[in-house]
Give the backbone structure.
Amino acid sequence: MIETFIDGPLWYFSLAVFSIGVVWQLAGIGFGKTKIDLSVPRDSAASGAVKTLFSRFIPDKHMAPQINVQVVAGYMFHLGLFALLFFAAPHVSFLEEEFLGFGWTPMPHWAFIVASQFAFLGLIMLWLRRILNLVSRLISTLDDHIAAILTFVVMLTGCLTLLEGFTALRLLHRFSVELLLIYFPFSCLMHTFTFIPSRVFTGAWFGRRGVGS
Amino acid sequence: MVNRDINRIIGFPAKRVSTLIILLFLLLPQFSFAVENEKYEGVLVINPGSELWRDIRQRDNSLEGTSQIKGVDNHILINSQGDRWARFRVNELVSYGTVALVAITLVLLLFYMIRGKLGVEGGLSGRMVHRFTDYERIVHWTLALVFLFLAITGLTLLLGRTFLIPILGQEIFSLLASASKEGHNLMGPIFIVSLFMMLFSFVKRNIYEKGDLTWLLKGGGLIGKSHVTGGFFNMGEKTWYWMVILVGLVISASGVILVSPNFGQGRIIMELSHVIHVGGAVILIAVSIGHMYLGSVGSEGSLEGMKTGYVDISWVEAHHDRWAKECHENDMIITAENYAKLQGKTAADASELANAMTEQGK
């Protein structure tokens, strides 16, 4: 009964919420009203956009000593999660069977383990920094904590079901994924899709004014 | 009358005859046994099945067999040492492990009931000193969280058969055990990385120095009423630190041997590693319960250091007097108001908090 519900209606519902929600949010940003800049451009907006898009991957040298932990942990977590999401063998076959109709070479098992350990250590350290660093703690919202914990639960249940011998564990993982998908469009997790437009917009805005950012 | 006469005439021999018959029945099986033993005494052929079984079990000698499959221990059919290890695991490790963990918990409960929370003489002052950086606290809590996860999953695997199956049933326990095993193996390497981060972050301040032995002789202040001296870390904290590092490394090494059986280690090495892994883990879990107790409900003002990075100067004077001297000399102390502002409180809240802490100190 519960198996049918999680694999069926709840899965399609969460997918619908996720897809419609993400498109709705992105459309809101894309088609939203922006103030027309009437000033004479001092420099190229396009070069500012490109520069900012890539320069943000490296921490500012003045800030580096204070944010070393979050930069290193951030890369560990995001790269680890990306590898798990798109190159873990169960995910590749799932995407092939359920959505795409084609697959690609998955990671070997040892790479899966290493990637998940990177992702786990990175996420734990990032969340700890969020609650232990004074400034991070004060600017963090409930949404940040829920997003971090949900992501952790999804990763953990995924790894616990690695043996693929128990339906209950697989369902637990799928259920946590469904919760994450439903929560995703309304949370800070949207930065997955918005970080590029955000950098481009900021870079173009400053670039036009001749401000190095 | 007639019956009495008959009895008198035949009674005596009849009794004798019946006694003899009974004796004969009683002795007959003995004779029969004796005859059988005599019959088999001369047989020299030993049961070939028993001999074969004895060789397979390798009870008397180490018999080298051959196998088409090449690998470590592949020539051994039955490993008797494995039986001994399995019995040791079930009888000794599980029993002693349970006793150790229950005993330490009961001792701490008893201690708390008798002594209560160990306070700072004169109360906390509200004036604070910076003790740990963000990075040091992140390292501490990363190691603590991963250790807790490993402890819970490890104890589930060790004690689950004895304690959880009767409660959860075999089906649910098998699911829990499978998840615990996967989780335990996955988090193990993260523990190793955190352990090295802990080693490099805190090693300099955990080198033993003059005065530490006095702390030990006075039982960290539990024996007698005189003040115990301590530096940035006192003797107890330093010992706990080295215990975490050294026992942690032993657990890590034995864990790596267990989780990677494809590097040529034989069964005996695996069994030995398992015993060392479990023994070390139980010791570390037992002592960590004491550490958690003293770092939270057991001692006033201790948790602040790992929560906010700041500790009260009165707490420092009570537990780390040599470091307190440095704090006074180097003007490291901040007021309660400034501390509250640092914690993101408004000026009014800060003032209120400072007054409350000063009152508490009085």
Chain A is about 75% helix and 0% strand. The CA atoms of residues 19 and 197 of chain A lie 18 Å apart. Residues 66-138 of chain A form one domain.
